[in-house]
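Session log. Operator J.P. requested a structure for one protein chain; no other inputs attached. Running the standard single-chain path with token output.
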Amino acid sequence: MNTMLDNLSSRSETSRPLVIAAVMASLAMVAIEATIVSTAMPQIVTKLGGLHLYSWVFSSFLLTQTAMTVVFGKLADIFGRKRIMLTGIVIFLVGSLLAGFAWSMPAMIIFRLIQGIGAGSIQPVTLTIVGDLYPVKERGKVQGYLASVWATAAVLGPMIGGLIVRDFSWAWIFWINIPIGLISAAGFVLFLHEKERDARPSIDIGGAVLFTAAIAALMIGLTNLSTADYTHAMLSGSVFIASAALFVWQERRSPDPMISFSLWGHRPIAMTNLATVFSGMALMGLTTFLPMYVQGVLHRMPVVAGFALTMVMVGWPLGATLSARSFHRFDLRKLLIGGSAVIPVGAMIFVSLTPHSAPLMAAIGSLVMGFGMGALSVTSLVLIQEQVDKSQRGSATASNLFSRNLGSTLGATVFGALLNYGLAHSKTLGAVTSDQLRKVIESAPGSTDNFAAIRLALHQSVHLTFAGLFIVALAIVVFAVLVPTVAAARNREAPQR
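Structure written below.
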């Protein structure tokens, strides 16, 4: 089959618009999966049981996705984008098919792990393909299109999930990916053509295994910390330290390491990725605790809380598109700093919220933060891609996506710890229990408020997380400013037309 594809490639030219259509379809598949499953999980857990494993359905996907992002980014540099892209789609579809047939929660978690492996290939390789096909002055517009895919999925995912659960079997939550994935794969097979690679590259299998083990242990440890499971957190931490030490030893002796320390340590890439880590933390803090504040403190309906949070996904594509269209006018570093400077402005709005604030204020804060994050995400990705040769672009792209996912995991742990500390040291009630919080959030808006003291304690606790969110937002600006002035190759011709 590979010979047939290579012969076809030699007679054909890449069709950029059709390849981008395939890219958008594959990203839509992953993006919808990230939101649609949460809608169906209450029904799924009633069928399969295992409520105590509920969170691992989501954590398992994120775990393998994060760990494999860097591995597949490197493999795309070695074997080519097309082969790794198709491999990722196949793995994702296999995981989706099996998830629909899951007979228990442990089986569901295993199949979600497989899905996460596929997603770990699809995300970095699609963005690398865009970097290969388009120079900077054109790439920005395409990145804006890709940002709109995630925004649309965030809005439509829960709606589609609700309709599927109501009218069909919950298995179609996963099986809906199969036609989308097959169409996307056909697009890459027919319209993306790469030059044949004559060299026989070496694969750092030891480095890939140790890196995956280290990141998996780190994320499991952070998850255990967020749930106050300190025994397992310490065990996971020990595995992480041992795996990380062995990984560094392996990479220093490998002739073609899985991770190039010189690439990751290059100052423009390192500072940009650090800003991305804190951006991931801020996004997790916002999406996790804003709905809780609107429902529990402002005493509003879930739909109002959903509206306030959805404004993030309105601001994100706006910021990404505006920045992308400005690539030909402004230096990438200036756009990076400008986008990051908007994020603390939105975070400050959340710090100023009181129990008497209107939900519109929260929505405005979400919109502003989403705008800044969208501008930061697209600019940081393009800036990093322009720092390396095409032979390292997959690895560089993967480093940025890995940083964002790692930041999300760190954010869940850090902000969760802040909330738990606030609830355990309430100035009005002492320790607030989870059962008390559940009753507050489930109480009907407009009814007699018998939970005023608990709402005040929740306000104080979430306000502490919002203060932490503001500090994290300031850190984003600091690292963006520390990115040195770099000259992006704006006039670089796309290698394929």
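Operator note: The chain has three domains: 1-192, 204-255, 260-497.
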